[in-house]
Specification:
The chain has 265 residues and is an alpha+beta fold. It has a domain at 133-259: Cytidine Deaminase, domain 2. It has helices at 51-61, 91-94, 116-121, 133-146, 148-153, 176-189, 207-216, 229-237; strands spanning 6-15, 18-27, 30-36, 39-46, 71-77, 82-87, 101-102, 114-115, 157-162, 168-173, 198-201, 220-223, 241-247, 250-253. The strands form 4 sheets. The chain has a 6-stranded mixed beta sheet, sandwiched between helices. A hairpin with a 2-residue loop joins strand 1 (6-15) and strand 2 (18-27). The longest helix is centred in the middle third of the chain and has 14 residues, at 133-146. Residues 97-113 have low confidence and may be disordered. InterPro entries: Cytidine_deaminase-like (IPR016193), FdhD (IPR003786). Keywords: Cytoplasm, Molybdenum cofactor biosynthesis, Oxidoreductase. This is Sulfur carrier protein FdhD. The active site is at 107 (cysteine persulfide intermediate). Belongs to the FdhD family.
């Protein structure tokens, strides 16, 4: 596996009125079919790195496993593009394989439409995390500084999980959900609690990304981009602090600002 999950290939470029031959980097994309108890569960299109973390985080976010000891084994066959997973319970006992949508409610608050499994797994945050503005700006600066493959290719999503101080893990993938699943899988593998952690994300905070954050169980998500209206509504309902447009020396807080400490920077 290419450790940088990118390749350099010849191309033809047009620049300043001239066509000429050169080479360029672009990201590697590969399908990974996940087999659970010898049954095909899903095929994920992903970057071919940290695949065990990806599979573990994906299965946890989909409700296939709820804790690490429910996983009996996981084997990655990179050559054929398969992940073979054995869990302690039958697959259909753990998840409803349905694309039907529903409206759920919690504590009298409205809940928008999303997949049945999302409604069952998304958690209302109980996080007590408190961050300063300088911590938020520093984490985003660090994310951008570590995104070297993105800088070379422009073809990846970047994400990190942190406590704002000492703990910081960075992952990249062509899929925005995949990058978050890799972080979740990393924490599950190492029995790292996520409740008082923050997700740092390079892309737009959509409702799907907000629901992913709720499934992981963090109390805060920050991004250099904008949120959507539905994401902000869900963030209010799920007690998640959503922070967007984290750039230079400013950012916007869209929900639950009480987790950001007002102090002199």
């Amino acid at each position: 596996m290419n450790p940088d999950f990118k390749t350099n290939q010849p191309i033809v470029r047009f620049e300043n009125g001239v066509l000429f031959e050169t080479a360029d980097d672009y990201v590697t994309e590969t399908p990974l079919t996940i087999m659970v108890n010898q049954e095909e569960f899903a095929t994920v299109i992903c970057s071919p790195n940290q695949l065990e973390e990806l599979v573990l985080g994906f299965l946890a976010s989909e409700g296939v496993i709820l804790k690490r000891d429910e996983l009996k084994s996981i084997e990655i066959d990179e050559h054929r593009g398969y992940a073979h997973v054995e869990i302690t319970s039958p697959l259909h006992d753990r998840i409803q394989l349905s694309t039907k949508r529903l409206v759920a409610s919690c504590c009298g608050k409205s809940r928008e439409f999303y997949f049945h499994n999302d409604a069952a797994i998304a958690k209302t945050s109980m996080s007590n995390i408190q961050l300063t503005p300088s911590q938020i700006l520093s984490m985003m600066t660090r994310l951008q500084a570590q995104s070297r493959v993105f800088q070379a290719t422009g073809g990846l999503h970047n994400a990190a999980i942190s406590d704002g101080n000492d703990f910081y893990i960075h992952r990249q993938d062509i899929g925005r959900h995949n990058a978050l699943d890799k972080l979740y899988g990393y924490c599950i593998q190492r029995h790292i609690g996520v409740r008082d952690k923050v997700l740092i994300f390079s892309g737009r905070i959509s409702s799907e990304i907000l629901i992913k954050a709720a499934k992981i169980g963090v109390g805060m998500i920050i991004s250099k981009s904008a949120p959507t209206t539905l994401a902000v509504q869900l963030a209010h309902d799920l007690n998640i602090t959503a922070v967007g447009f984290v750039r230079d020396n400013y950012f916007n807080i869209y929900s639950h600002p009480e987790r950001i400490q007002q102090i002199n920077m």
